[in-house]
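fyi for ur records
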Amino acid sequence: MPTDFVRYTPEIETIDPDLDRLMEQIVGFWEKKVRESPVVEGSGRAVRGAHAKTFGVVKAEVQILRNVPPAYAQGIYAKPGRHGALIRFSSASNHLGADATLGGVLGCAMKMFDVPGLKLVAIESGLTWLSGFIWRADKTWKGVRAEVPWVTRAPSEIIRDHVRFTVQPIDAPDELAAIMRLIEHLESDELFLFSTDYPHWQFDGDAVLPDGLSSETVQRILIDNPLETYPRLRDGGQIGDNAASNKEAVR
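which gave:
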């Protein structure tokens, strides 16, 4: 297993001068395919551009070994341990149909569970839908736990630990009430991150947060939550030599 990598520099890559035009052609081709797929595939539903049919789902365990070379010991592979996982196998085709006509298994996707520290940030997704979604997800999980024994925690707990949401846009007429209601429902003020939608012309400028939030909540949204979500900022990987200078820079 190689441990040395070629570090990227602009000189080692040749950019096709027609890249923008080619990308438009590629995107247009697949948009047309997916748009027409409900009729072409005969299912009445849109079909993705590749790996359209699942052949099987396997419950697995992923072991991260000790003494992994530094070049590989990154992200979820940085700490030894074992994680439950689900692996989805699929064809490479964007068609449905009999398995025998779709070729062999050429697609594989894996979902690992209970990975500490991993965060998903939802940007410009709004906030008002979140409360009802979490209530419904928890209710459904309680009803089908026997069918998904590998999901050992309520969806609300998983969201609290692993999902963050930017506060632009707050899609409610009373923005203060919407944020406070979510904080109360989720029992946490750690889910929200500052954002303005800059550089779009309609960005919020200085009017991102509603008046009336406590200073502790403002501190959380503007400083503490972003630094906890992006450890490299907190630890000095980007904007300073140490955590103290990072915090001052964000201020």
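The CA atoms of residues 41 and 96 lie 7 Å apart. thats all i got for now
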